[in-house]
Amino acid sequence: MTGDDVVPGAGEQAADRVHATLRAEILDGLRPAGAWLREEEIAAAQGTSRTPVREAIRRLAADGLAEIAPRRGAVVVGWDADDLDELFDLRVVLEGHAAARAAVSGRADLDRLHELCDLMEALRTPPDYPAITRLNLEFHREVHRAGGRRVLPELVARVVEAPLVQSTIRRYTPARLDRSFAQHRDLVAAIEAGDADWARAVMTAHLRAAREVVRDAVTAESRPS
């Protein structure tokens, strides 16, 4: 019996910690599609019992990041070209709408958006892909929050936080990173100018460029070696 089993609330805290760790590892590509999530191995690595690990894996399945196979365990979910098209079609609609609303809502934290652009650009040479990925997600979340109070940000989060989407940045070449950063600056300028059409257009172009990056990678990964 571990401390997780005897201290009130400790099991829940351990499950939160394990879930956060596994989620970050999946989104950072450290646990790729098809990787098995072994309870015993994870429990040993995290210094906890298997009970909070089991709960953490259940949450990952609810997040759409893992699939539970009866009597076999759980595996990190894989994505194909059809998933890619569906996800990015949804992103264009939802995030384009969020950007347009952010430009006219008066809720955008422009100082924070500029700061996030600065932080990402400072990590450009050499590219720190995990850090840029986290900052990029925060940048998009700031736009979502400015575009909607609750429903829109929650709806967009399920699409934007899919592992296929979160793995986009680490697939960028330095030249594509530069273009992405420039589009971030253009988006902030559009929001600052209060121009909804401009903001929607920039976000749409930004996401279509990202789609091409991921499509190229998915196509390459699907070719027989």
From TrEMBL:
GO molecular function, one term: DNA-binding transcription factor activity
InterPro entries: GntR_C, TF_FadR/GntR_C, Tscrpt_reg_HTH_GntR, WH-like_DNA-bd_sf, WH_DNA-bd_sf
Signal sequence residues: none
Residue span, HTH gntR-type domain: 12-79
Pfam family, one: GntR
Keywords assigned: DNA-binding, Transcription, Transcription regulation
Magnesium found in the keyword field: no
Name of the protein this chain belongs to: HTH-type transcriptional regulator McbR
The species this protein was found in: Pseudonocardia autotrophica (Amycolata autotrophica)
Lineage: Bacteria, Bacillati, Actinomycetota, Actinomycetes, Pseudonocardiales
Gene designation per UniProt: mcbR_2
